């Protein structure tokens, strides 16, 4: 844990665009109105994408982020689309909108949206909100967008995980029957422990999902699927 905490204070090298060019490419970044998602989208905006979609739960903050990125980078193709990734109906509507307006293919999907709740809350799906957002909604969106990714040339799917997935006290817990129902039990083993544990498990789910999805992709696919530890 001390290694992890020290790592948060390290200065990372400045990222260069090198010769990377996203001309003609369609890119989606979830949770792109603040933090890592915003900085990621802002960087990608400098690479001349055909369309850069900020998928955000709140359109007001998403629209502002899009306007700020456009102002700072000169990217005229950045837009905000509404997406509450914890809500299956919202994910479905987002996928349907992309089918209508996205141009038929998706080159890059960066799933950054995530939360860490300290109070027990249920999402619209009926599952605990951290699990519903960080894992269930994230996996749902990846599968919804998979047909569009597979139509692109050398597409990428990136799910933002975390080093804290190593902190799950019992890794087998993420692979036990009825695990989602168990994680839905309110204040299990005390409020703080339960909520922290749900976040850790959700990040482990991210890694396991990426590995499982990569293993089930059709032979010969050009799609790269990976998870990243931003810390």
Automatic annotation (TrEMBL):
Q: Does the keyword Transferase apply?
A: no
Q: Which PANTHER family match?
A: PHOSPHATIDYLINOSITOL-GLYCAN BIOSYNTHESIS CLASS F PROTEIN, PHOSPHATIDYLINOSITOL-GLYCAN BIOSYNTHESIS CLASS F PROTEIN-RELATED
Protein name per the record: NAD(P)-binding protein
What SUPFAM superfamilies does this protein's entry cite? NAD(P)-binding Rossmann-fold domains
Q: Under the GO molecular function aspect, what terms does this record hold? A: oxidoreductase activity
Organism field = Calocera viscosa (strain TUFC12733)
Q: Source taxonomy lineage? A: Eukaryota, Fungi, Dikarya, Basidiomycota, Agaricomycotina
Coiled-coil region(s): none
Q: Which UniProt keywords apply?
A: Oxidoreductase
